[in-house]
Amino acid sequence: MSLYANPNGNANPNGNAPAEPQVPKASQACMSCRKQKRKCSKTLPACGLCERMNRHCDYSDASPPPTSEDFMALQRQVSKLESILKGEGGVMNQPSPYQTSASGLASSDGLPQAPVYTPLQDIPWQGLQNRFPVIAFLDNGSFKSGGINVPRPSVEIPVDALEMLGNGDSVSVTINEYFSTVHKWLPIVSEKRLTRNMQNPMWEGGPDLALLFLCMKLITSKPQDGLDCAHNPIYLSAKRFVGLMEATGTASLLVLQANLLVTWYEYSQAVYPAAWMSAGWCLRYGNMLGINGHEEAAQLLGPLNTWTEREERRRTWWGVLLTDRIVSLGSQGHIMNSQEPTAGDFLPADDTAWENGELQAMEKKVSNPLEDPVAPFPRLCQAFVQLGKVLKHNHVSKPADPHEPQKPRFIEASILYSEISLLARTLLVEANNSKDFLAFAAPLALTYSALCTLCESYSCPKGCKADTAEEQAMQAQAIDGLKWVSLSIMEFSDRITKESPMPHDLDRVSPIIMDALYSAACNYAWLFRENGDAASQAALESIRLSLRRLQTRWRNAAEYLRILEAQEFVGFAGRNRGS
Question: In what residue span(s) does the Zn(2)-C6 fungal-type domain sit (predicted)?
């Protein structure tokens, strides 16, 4: 007779208390518990932890990662990082590396060292579950009306990512360096909101936050001699981590911000075509989240709780648009975005007000006069809008018939030139009056790039042959415009050098300025080739000197120098992005 069915309620004939039903158990801990060195219930078909986390439970005999003393130090780092991600410590209160020395970041001779890296230890791709509601794409209307939520996937932070991040002190250094440098020219992550959340003991960070920290470390890392930037261990880890989040259907603003930083790393360190592809990914992901401002978009991020959160989403979307345009600026593959900002769209709020969480009484729109004073990031967005008008003029407004009258198009070009020149002069005054010239460097350089792009399309039409008086007048105006903007860029380049005398000062110089420097260098090379002007050659050498300084921080400067040298060798100079 079965003990489970004893009518007397006794477990055995001796009268002991009833025994618990014997649940079958595995002979060993599951793979996930072994990897994480956690106690496993060994219950079948899934252990208690895997069942709670709703993930695949693997009791196979595959060997777990090594458990020797080699990994004891790593486990201590993991524990410290987990406490950071759970809000235990407030890493933002740690001293900035720009105020105190950051030991361990440089060798005794002052040169940065390549990060310590252990080969990848089996990222758990097997058994991943993607619970993203497909209806959001197949029938967006039903998705929104049904009030369907996007579940938050359970994703384990990859071991290699944890190893790259290091301990809490290392994360603190990364965050402070990011907000002291990159954030100054790409302010899309709210430092105030991040600090408040991390100091809240009830708030728990997740893998998307760890990914953002990793990408902050990536974008602030410097090129290493002898190491291809595409082989940077932090970069490889970040790319895998992004792929992991995508595979699980994660919908998070932090993931978008993280991959924007990956894209800027790829652009600034000349990792192509990855930069081009990543920019497109960010555009699609932003659309998926619904931060593009379109009413018909599914709002996967949920309702907004504060003005700071709303502004962060707006800034991130502007960052997506900026990134996509700048990454493709030098190529002939311009893809005009159907989501170009309209006159009624709002610009980002004042930078200082957003940083302090101060609600602005009057928000500026794209249609506001360019002379109205705004902060550096809204200025960068205004330059982006003007550049978009130029690209549309150059690539969309061309008449299909070359014999069609060009006068209306020339008038439009002259109006554009006047508007962008006004923005350039306004920005230059603001930059000169500011205590921080580098804060205005990115918008000023992008404005110069817009002028170069416009003038280049008219400076040498149809093989430098102007058939009509109107074309001759437009060509002369474009050449004069190129001379003026090239001189402005050379002076701008000299000012950048003056404002960044020390190597660490280059950390605050935005890679956005590279296109303008290269455009001016091409123009001076062309002028020198045409008339042998010594002043043009001197200006060219001055810009080359700036690029040589900048290549220690951003590798795309070295690539621009290489192109200039190749053009000189083959007897060709200049480019024409507008034709």
Answer: 29-59
CA distances from residue 439 to 181, 377, 409, 486 in whole angstroms, order as listed: 10, 9, 35, 21
In a domain, 216, yes or no: yes
Residue 439: other Cβ atoms inside 10 A = 20
Residue type, 240: R
What six digits make up the tokens of 360? 């602005």
Q: 3-state class of 128 per DSSP?
A: coil
Q: Rounded to the nearest 10 degrees, how much is the dihedral formed by the CA atoms of 83, 89, 91, 95?
A: -140
> Is 496 within 8 Å of 438 (Cβ atoms)?
yes
Judged against a pLDDT cut of 80, whether residue 221 lies above it is answered with yes
- My answer on whether 181 and 294 are in the same domain is yes
**H helix runs in 111-185, sequence order:** 135-138, 140-145, 159-165, 168-180, 182-185
CA atoms of 141 and 345, how far apart (whole Å): 24
pLDDT at residue 7, rounded to an integer: 35
Strand, coil or helix: 112: strand
Range of the domain at 214: 69-98+156-322
What integer pLDDT is reported at residue 366 of this predicted model? 94
Mind listing the pLDDT tens digit for each residue in 21-66? 566 788 888 887 777 667 888 888 888 877 766 677 887 765 544 4
CA distance 9 to 20: 12
Does residue 457 belong to any structural domain of this protein? yes
Q: CA 217 to CA 264: how far, in whole Å? A: 13
Q: Which two tokens stand for residue 133?
A: 């509601």
* 270 & 397 share domain: no
Model confidence at 73: pLDDT above 80: no
Is 547 part of a structural domain of the chain? yes
* pLDDT tens digits for range 98-135: 333 333 334 434 444 444 444 444 545 566 778 887 88
DSSP string of 306-339?
SHHHHHHHHHHHHHHHHHHHHHTTTSS-----TT
> 3-class DSSP state for residue 188?
coil
Range from 14-18, 96-100, 313-317 that averages highest in pLDDT = 313-317
The DSSP output letter for 506 is G
Q: What are all long-range contacts of 567-572, with beta carbons under 8 Å and residues at least 24 apart? A: 567/522, 567/525, 568/525, 571/529
Is 443 found in the same domain as 307? no
Mean pLDDT of 416-430: 96
160 and 225, same domain (yes or no):
yes
**Would the CA dihedral through 237, 239, 240, 244 be positive or negative?**
positive
Residue 28 domain flag: no
Taking the whole predicted model, whether its pTM rises above 0.90 is answered as no
Continuous H helices in 37-149: 48-53, 72-85, 135-138, 140-145
pLDDT tens-digit readout, 164-192: 998 888 888 999 999 999 999 999 999 88
CA–CA separation, 332 vs 87, rounded Å? 47
CA–CA separation, 31 vs 10, rounded Å? 38
Backbone φ, ψ for residue 343 (5° rounding): -60, -30
List C-alpha distances in Å: 562 to 27, 529, 556, 574: 62, 18, 10, 14
Q: How many domains does the chain have?
A: 2
Confidence label for 340 from pLDDT (cuts 50, 70 and 90): confident
